Amino acid sequence: MTPRIADDPLDPHGRTDEIAVDGALRPPSLDEFKGQPRVAEQLGLVLAAAQHRNAVPDHVLLSGPPGLGKTTLAMIIAHELGAPLRISSGPAIQHAGDLAAILSGLTEGEVFFLDEIHRMSRPAEEMLYMAMEDFRVDVIVGKGPGATEIPLEIPPFVLVGATTRAGLLPGPLRDRFGFTGQLDYYDAADLVGIVQRSASLLDIAVDRASASVIAGRSRGTPRIANRLLRRVRDFALVKASGRIDPDVAAAALELYEVDALGLDRLDRSVLEALCVRFAGGPVGLGTLAMSVGEEAETVEEVAEPFLIRQGFLMRTPRGRVATQRAWQHLGLKVPASRADLFSDADG
Ligand SMILES: Nc1ncnc2c1ncn2[C@@H]1O[C@H](COP(=O)(O)OP(=O)(O)OP(=O)(O)O)[C@@H](O)[C@H]1O
């Protein structure tokens, strides 16, 4: 599993609803996959060229923060190739044998989506190198001096690896992907389109101005946009006779503690801890995460990329540091000790 999306508290009744709806909202083809034009165009070319050559395309690595569409793209790849899709994830493959079992069950041209590929065990990773390159693995049978390696042929397949941490992938693994797509946070305008598309699929009436309110608070992330749309729909049903306008959307998101810039409770806790408890830092990731009661991985992969992008937080060799904007956003006065620091650096 990728780290928990920071606004899970918005879904206090569990993710059942979300998972069912998520599937229905996924764009089925590259044409409908908006908001990452470069990745979509490059990937489209890789797939079209392979089809032209009547060959299995190169392996594909997709990287980027959670909720930006990596799983969706893997499904689209299988769909565009007309190939079956097999899904697994790094943490589920702890032994090389687990991987061998999956690989040996693949059919020719099948798309194998491996989520969180950076969390696979080392022996499985090494087996994957050979499978990606030679479509073959060596399975060790027996133990001790009597152990033997039996080569196992695997039909040509397409590996689609997904990671939130491309930097953690060992070079030899990264190099075996013929195409790497780096997904980035979505522009507000693209998210407005995604909210409107989802609203129409879910039969929710949302005008462009209301969709903008939702999109603007979605941290550049389609999964969050879809989730906030559903919370706005709920709020409107109960409190506004089902009618959504920009004020209703804003009131709903206030209720769910999503602020005007899209920061949620985890983001604000991290900023508050950094600015107030640690006087702006520098503070180590582990200490910061512990002080907000979260896993370091969640803070690092879910909250931080957005806070850094928004200019609230900096990573320095000595630890995390708040920027002037962080205090301002929290409505706090920048401490005198910091004000000097920011007078020319952080405007
Ligand atoms: N370009 C897009 N257009 C419309 N909806 C999208 C797009 N990308 C993602 N979504 C929606 O966002 C949701 C999350 O996408 P997806 O599960 O593919 O993200 P992910 O990057 O795989 O996340 P994780 O890393 O957490 O597994 C999907 O249900 C899908 O409906």
Structure description:
By secondary structure, the protein is an alpha/beta fold. It has 3 domains: 36-182, P-loop containing nucleotide triphosphate hydrolases (Rossmann fold); 188-255, Helicase, Ruva Protein, domain 3; 265-345, Winged helix-like DNA-binding domain superfamily/Winged helix DNA-binding domain (Arc Repressor Mutant, subunit A, Orthogonal Bundle), CATH 1.10.10. 48% of the residues lie in helices and 13% in strands. Helix 7 (188-201) crosses helix 9 (222-239), helix 8 (208-216) runs parallel beside helix 10 (246-255) and helix 9 (222-239) crosses helix 10. The longest helix has 18 residues, at 222-239. It is globular, with a radius of gyration of 23 Å. The site of adenosine-5'-triphosphate (ATP) has 22 residues, from helix 1, helix 3 and helix 9. The site of adenosine-5'-triphosphate has 22 residues, from helix 1, helix 3 and helix 9. GO terms for molecular function: ATP binding; four-way junction DNA binding; four-way junction helicase activity; hydrolase activity. Mg(2+) binds at residue 71.
Which helices and strands, and how do they pair?
Layout: H1 16-25, H2 37-53, E1 60-63, H3 70-81, E2 85-89, H4 96-104, E3 111-115, H5 122-134, E4 136-141, E5 148-153, E6 158-163, H6 171-175, E7 179-182, H7 188-201, H8 208-216, H9 222-239, H10 246-255, H11 265-277, H12 285-291, H13 296-309, E8 313-316, E9 319-322, H14 324-329, H15 336-345
Parallel strand pairs: 1-6, 1-7, 2-3, 3-6
Antiparallel strand pairs: 4-5, 8-9
Helix pairs in contact: 4-5, 7-8, 7-9, 8-10, 9-10, 11-13, 12-13
The structure holds adenosine-5'-triphosphate.
Residues 2, 22, 25-27, 33-35, 66-72, 115, 162, 164, 194, 222-223, 226 line the site of adenosine-5'-triphosphate.
